[in-house]
Amino acid sequence: MKNYPEFPYIPVSCGMDFRKDWTKKEGHECFNWFIAIFDQRASTILDYFEEDINQESNELLLRLGKKLVKALEDEKCWRETEDFEIKFRTGHTTTVNDGRGLTKYGYSIAADMGCLLALLLLRDLGDKIKWGIVTKPKNDMFFLHPVLEGFAIEFEPVHVSVVLSLRVIRGRGESEAWAKIYAMQKEELDNC
Length: 192
Description:
Layout: H1 24-48, H2 57-72, E1 78-80, E2 84-87, E3 93-96, E4 100-102, H3 104-125, E5 130-133, E6 146-149, H4 157-169, H5 177-190
Antiparallel strand pairs: 1-4, 2-3, 5-6
């Protein structure tokens, strides 16, 4: 596998703490950073796999899904994870191992596929959706994340794509998953 351009890290000015510890100002700063790079990152995956955005979205995602799954098979994209212990409030503990995890290359490809998924939804759904940021409640899974608003539930495409990629490297994913997510999100708003 040829080297894949690494997804940039969150700017240091936002801090490296968990998002729930960020101020809203830091959250908005990182939101603006993401919005500034997201088009370029969607182009990165298209260029890498020699695809063109000027085509029907579902067909593009089906083809790219196959290429992405093949790329994720490369050992540069995944690593074996180590056991970790979870402690419950009851005092009980359990040891967990998720199996394989994404390397920086695997994460970069997965994140960029999420950026492309967002770009296609924005292109095809027009003014029905837009980028937003979750600012409350603080315990929301996507607190201070960039999300697509306009759906019944906010949609975080990078997170979704990373989860789909993890399923692939753990032997439980499918290449059609990104096209299915696109179709499901589009259908929700087409039927409104």
